[in-house]
């Protein structure tokens, strides 16, 4: 039974990743940002202003790679960058209003598709799905910390 559950969950994760990637790529191309740039914008929209060090750590990439992403987003006026007044070595990055609008549009489109899928489920199915996804998420977060 465990093998069947693992296989089903694995297939679901792969499908969800493909679904998300395809929707992000489609929307990103229409908005002239790469999926990696979208990831930065999404992170900044969730966390607000971040230092470059924290941003790089969240993205699990080098400071140089993060700087390149931010440079390209700056040119499109999607983020802003400021040096700390108290420590000139520290650089703060935040999303602009234009960046927030883009994130909102892309997220809204993705959520609309998911809402259509959820509407096709009855209330019991929705509750079962919510319980299962919440449990899986909690267990994965716990596993990630271990």
Describe the structure.
The chain is mainly alpha-helical and about 150 residues long. The protein has one domain: Arc Repressor Mutant, subunit A, CATH 1.10.10. Helix content is about 75%, strand content about 10%. The chain has six helices and three strands, in the order ααβααββαα. The chain has a three-stranded antiparallel β-sheet. A hairpin with a 7-residue loop joins β2 and β3. α3 crosses α4. The longest helix has 29 residues. The model has no long low-confidence stretch (mean pLDDT about 90).
Task: Give a nutshell description of this structure.
With 146 residues, the protein is mainly alpha-helical. It has helices at residues 2-30, 35-47, 52-59, 63-75, 97-119, 123-145; strands at residues 50-51, 79-83, 91-95.
Please render the helix and strand layout as text.
Layout: H1 2-30, H2 35-47, E1 50-51, H3 52-59, H4 63-75, E2 79-83, E3 91-95, H5 97-119, H6 123-145
Antiparallel strand pairs: 1-3, 2-3
Helix-strand topology string:
HHEHHEEHH
Number of helices: 6
- Which structural class do the helices and strands define? mainly alpha
Low-confidence stretches: none
Cα radius of gyration in angstroms: 18 Å
Main sheet?
A: 3 strands, antiparallel
- Quaternary state, please? single chain
CATH topology (fold) name: Arc Repressor Mutant, subunit A
Which term fits the overall shape?
Answer: globular
Strand order of the largest sheet: 1-3-2
The overall pLDDT, averaged over residues, is 88
First-to-last CA distance? 25 Å
Determine the fraction of residues in helical runs and give it as a percent range: over 70%
CATH architecture: Orthogonal Bundle
Count of domain modules: 1
Number of DSSP E strands = 3
């Amino acid at each position: 039974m465990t093998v069947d559950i693992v296989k089903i969950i694995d297939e679901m994760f792969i499908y969800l990743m493909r679904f998300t990637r395809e929707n992000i790529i489609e929307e990103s191309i229409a908005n002239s940002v790469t999926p990696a740039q979208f990831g930065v914008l999404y992170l900044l929209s969730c966390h607000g202003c971040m230092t470059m060090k924290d941003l790089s750590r969240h993205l699990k990439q080098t400071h140089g790679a993060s700087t390149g992403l931010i440079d390209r987003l700056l040119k499109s006026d999607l983020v802003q960058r400021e040096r700390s007044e108290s420590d000139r070595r520290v650089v703060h990055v935040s999303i602009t209003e234009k960046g927030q609008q883009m994130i909102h549009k892309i997220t809204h489109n993705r959520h609309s598709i998911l809402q259509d899928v959820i509407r096709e489920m009855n209330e019991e199915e929705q509750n079962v799905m919510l319980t299962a996804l919440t449990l899986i998420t909690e267990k994965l977060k716990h596993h990630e910390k271990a």
